[in-house]
């Protein structure tokens, strides 16, 4: 009798295991799950914005299909801020640009540089197709982020942001650093905007606007920049009209700036002090 009952129990046990296996949700091909105690039990992760993760509900964001060099840059540490641009911490470029985090309020510091030549034409770039956010879009001269480092955290007269701009102008456009010193950049104001690039990636930034007029040497990195050109006001207005007709794409921050302040500032390149506003943040 005991042996008979034991045989029945073994059969039931195997059947139960089979049922459990057949009811388990199948993961999509290539999906990787992060299986840790914090995920299984729903404890908060130690990133800049703490949020619940579940191994069953939230697979890792895969970057396997993205450009290797651009993926490496996702580990850079951006400066986290509140709505008043006060520093509150640091997090990776990757975490700062995930829409799932942006929707929870994650906000970081950024800058946009506008360089004009001696003919008062504006240098534009077209972002490379390798870029993770807004690939192939036309935009102002250079757009990026100060990093959470001592030299770029310094806030007096936005010197840290201007140092970051000098670094990125070299990295993206190959402009020699001695040609774009922080002292030559005019810090005008800040804008706060949010925009989705696609279903996964986006931007949520307080953007420092930096102007400069100088003839510079260019040697763009093709991994960063697909093309570049100098445009007059009339040429830029024609490009913006094409963008409205969906004939080309421009970045949302550049479109916002062009629709509001850009042309007034452009008309006053030699008298920009009247437009310097460091007290207010323009919400767009």
UniProtKB/TrEMBL annotation:
<comment type="similarity">
    <text>Belongs to the IPP isomerase type 1 family.</text>
</comment>
<keyword id="KW-0732">Signal</keyword>
<keyword id="KW-0752">Steroid biosynthesis</keyword>
<dbReference type="GO" id="GO:0006695">
    <property type="term" value="P:cholesterol biosynthetic process"/>
</dbReference>
<dbReference type="Pfam" id="PF00293">
    <property type="entry name" value="NUDIX"/>
</dbReference>
<keyword id="KW-0413">Isomerase</keyword>
<feature type="signal peptide">
    <location>
        <begin position="1"/>
        <end position="18"/>
    </location>
</feature>
<dbReference type="GO" id="GO:0005737">
    <property type="term" value="C:cytoplasm"/>
</dbReference>
<keyword id="KW-0153">Cholesterol metabolism</keyword>
<keyword id="KW-1207">Sterol metabolism</keyword>
<comment type="pathway">
    <text>Isoprenoid biosynthesis; dimethylallyl diphosphate biosynthesis; dimethylallyl diphosphate from isopentenyl diphosphate: step 1/1.</text>
</comment>
<dbReference type="InterPro" id="IPR015797">
    <property type="entry name" value="NUDIX_hydrolase-like_dom_sf"/>
</dbReference>
<keyword id="KW-0756">Sterol biosynthesis</keyword>
<comment type="function">
    <text>Catalyzes the 1,3-allylic rearrangement of the homoallylic substrate isopentenyl (IPP) to its highly electrophilic allylic isomer, dimethylallyl diphosphate (DMAPP).</text>
</comment>
<keyword id="KW-0443">Lipid metabolism</keyword>
<dbReference type="GO" id="GO:0046872">
    <property type="term" value="F:metal ion binding"/>
</dbReference>
<keyword id="KW-0152">Cholesterol biosynthesis</keyword>
<keyword id="KW-0414">Isoprene biosynthesis</keyword>
<keyword id="KW-0753">Steroid metabolism</keyword>
<keyword id="KW-0479">Metal-binding</keyword>
<keyword id="KW-0460">Magnesium</keyword>
<keyword id="KW-0444">Lipid biosynthesis</keyword>
<feature type="domain" description="Nudix hydrolase">
    <location>
        <begin position="106"/>
        <end position="256"/>
    </location>
</feature>
<dbReference type="InterPro" id="IPR000086">
    <property type="entry name" value="NUDIX_hydrolase_dom"/>
</dbReference>
<dbReference type="GO" id="GO:0004452">
    <property type="term" value="F:isopentenyl-diphosphate delta-isomerase activity"/>
</dbReference>
<dbReference type="GO" id="GO:0009240">
    <property type="term" value="P:isopentenyl diphosphate biosynthetic process"/>
</dbReference>
<dbReference type="InterPro" id="IPR011876">
    <property type="entry name" value="IsopentenylPP_isomerase_typ1"/>
</dbReference>
<protein>
    <recommendedName>
        <fullName>isopentenyl-diphosphate Delta-isomerase</fullName>
        <ecNumber>5.3.3.2</ecNumber>
    </recommendedName>
</protein>
């Amino acid at each position: 009798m005991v042996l008979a009952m034991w045989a029945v129990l073994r059969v039931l046990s195997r059947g139960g295991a089979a049922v459990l296996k057949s009811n388990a949700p199948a993961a999509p091909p290539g999906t990787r799950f992060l299986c840790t105690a914090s995920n299984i039990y729903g404890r908060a992760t130690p990133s800049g914005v703490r949020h619940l993760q579940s191994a069953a509900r939230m697979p890792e964001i895969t970057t396997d299909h993205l450009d290797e060099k651009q993926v490496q840059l996702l580990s850079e540490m951006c400066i986290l801020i509140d709505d008043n641009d006060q520093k509150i911490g640091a997090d990776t470029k990757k975490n700062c640009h995930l829409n799932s985090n942006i929707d929870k309020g994650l906000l970081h510091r950024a800058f946009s540089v506008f360089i004009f030549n001696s003919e008062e034409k504006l240098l534009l770039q077209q972002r490379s197709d390798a870029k993770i956010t807004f690939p192939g879009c036309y935009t102002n001269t250079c757009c990026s982020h100060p990093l959470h480092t001592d030299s770029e955290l310094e806030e007096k007269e936005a010197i840290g942001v201007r140092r970051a701009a000098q670094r990125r102008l070299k990295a993206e456009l190959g402009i020699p650093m001695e040609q774009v010193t922080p002292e030559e950049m005019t810090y005008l104001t800040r804008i706060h905007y949010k925009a989705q690039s696609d279903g996964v990636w986006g931007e949520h930034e307080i953007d420092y606007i930096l102007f400069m007029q100088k003839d510079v040497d260019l040697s763009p990195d093709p991994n960063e920049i697909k093309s570049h050109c100098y445009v007059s006001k009339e040429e830029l207005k024609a490009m913006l009209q094409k963008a409205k007709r969906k004939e080309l794409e421009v970045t949302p921050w550049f479109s916002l700036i062009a629709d509001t302040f850009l042309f007034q500032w452009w008309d006053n390149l030699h008298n920009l002090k009247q437009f310097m506003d460091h007290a207010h943040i323009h919400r767009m």
